[in-house]
Amino acid sequence: MTSIARTAPLALSLALAAATAAAAAATPAKPAAKGRTLQQILDASQPSDWRALDPRNTIYLELERGRAVIELAPQFAPEHVANIRALAHNGYWNGLSVNRSQDNYVVQWGDPEEDAAKRKPLGPGAKDKLPAEFARKSAGLKMTVLPDTDGWAKQAGFVDGFPAARDSATGSSWLAHCYGTVGAGRDMAADSSNGSELYVVIGQSPRHLDRNITTVGRVVQGMELLSVLPRGTGALGFYEKPSERAPIVSIALAADLPEAQRAKLEVLRTDTPLFAELVEARRNRRDDWYLQPAGHINLCNMPLPVREKKG
Amino acid sequence: MTSIARTAPLALSLALAAATAAAAAATPAKPAAKGRTLQQILDASQPSDWRALDPRNTIYLELERGRAVIELAPQFAPEHVANIRALAHNGYWNGLSVNRSQDNYVVQWGDPEEDAAKRKPLGPGAKDKLPAEFARKSAGLKMTVLPDTDGWAKQAGFVDGFPAARDSATGSSWLAHCYGTVGAGRDMAADSSNGSELYVVIGQSPRHLDRNITTVGRVVQGMELLSVLPRGTGALGFYEKPSERAPIVSIALAADLPEAQRAKLEVLRTDTPLFAELVEARRNRRDDWYLQPAGHINLCNMPLPVREKKG
């Protein structure tokens, strides 16, 4: 630890980062006259403000240093998610590796073999070819729309906890590329991804990728295992030597594991009054440290609290 | 290396990332019918499109694994930059450490000593107390304004290569918090920073910090040395054990070093027609891979090319 003096400036981020554990144990705090702070809001959350991850939509990426938990979004990419479930069930990624780490952009994993003919078979139930799932009809999706302009899209907000955007003119919605968003690498052809090669955003949100590639979910816990991987020195951040690649111990679907091996995680719901209050407190911070409230929130500056499930 | 197939999707980022070396050696490329790509524009750049870093405004942060180059912005924070020059001249940071690494937020360095009375003396010419330099008058600054809405500020663009924002109502301008922006940690009091404790943004742009803290410059080269530092497990990402801290070998002002030890770097100018073309090509990508041009660019999605100076 170091002095409080020079650490306080950036203290606010603690509120959401530490929500993982802190929110679970907290007691309701007294609201400040100017509105509750992020931490106070989380501390006052009720069990109904949280939802458990669905084991059918959760995969565990096991690296040598630990587990990253990824929530899949079948409502946005049903075909890719079905394929990812099959690939995980088949143990497809076990023994493969993280092959790319490009600074301020993405970390990517899959089969490093260049020759398509020599790549690992996908196994039973997994398809080699899928349709592109860049966007879908907005009908049937409930979005908590953020109050500020997005710039990249006409509207932006959260759908079932995923950062998303939509266009009322075309009636379509899509998962947005924010820090932690997971997508399926593709070649020049729009329909050339099948979910076997995945990437995660580790830098400034590359929103220009939106609607150009299939996004399949987001990392809910363990981003710090992926974001610190040494950057590759080859083109696009690919590792030049096989020995530089980070081995994937396994990727498993939570539903395929016995309950004792599953992460007991809850994530904050995004369709509640509490979440709306959190958005407002993030638009205009109430912590005393802030002298100039922003009066604005960007989709990718709204990370979602995660916590261990009680009991 | 891995297959082109699944790597192509994110290939565009190469254009700017690889500009470091590639742009120097290139020959002008034929413009495509729909406009030149990012790489083609850079390849066609002339020597006058680049500027050399000023050694009086450049510091080298030497870590055990290499050097990060930081460009200082005296036009935004003259008092802090003067202090940082004095601190570097005094060898103040030599033997101190990186004490904090918080995922998707900041990496921070300085004196880890909690007790202010026991901290390392700043040395001759360095002041313990400075005024806050959160923003300055816009008069005298030439901004290349980006065409799209920013959200966080009325206008955003580049001033002398630094991402910046301004407000015509108040007539003030400030350096924006983007990936790589360097700022001076402070306590609760606005004027409690002196530049001895510095942080760099390693994640999604925390623009809510704008005008709440003094920003002093940006990392021009070597971000990947800082962004991969293991995240601290203490509050705010501070390392809990002293052994986890990354030692700072030295921080030196380029002007204090013999010419042979200085990095020969040039950065792309942001006040040229070439830069305007680059902005437009980034708003609407011309690479064949893109099916849906964004029609938008965000200030922090516009990284600046850097290259080794020829000759």
Automatic annotation (TrEMBL), chains A, B:
Highest taxon of the lineage: Bacteria
> Which GO MF terms does the UniProt record name?
peptidyl-prolyl cis-trans isomerase activity
EC number from the UniProt entry: 5.2.1.8
Checking InterPro entries in the record gives: Cyclophilin-like_dom_sf, Cyclophilin-type_PPIase_dom, E_coli_cyclophilin_A-like
Task: Specify the enzyme's EC class, one word.
Answer: isomerase
The record ties this protein, via SUPFAM superfamilies, to:
Cyclophilin-like
Extract the Pfam families matched here: Pro_isomerase (PF00160)
Q: Which UniProt keywords apply?
A: Isomerase, Rotamase
PANTHER family found in the cross-reference section: PEPTIDYL-PROLYL CIS-TRANS ISOMERASE CYP38, CHLOROPLASTIC
Q: What is this protein called?
A: peptidylprolyl isomerase
Source species taxonomy: Bacteria, Pseudomonadati, Pseudomonadota, Gammaproteobacteria, Lysobacterales
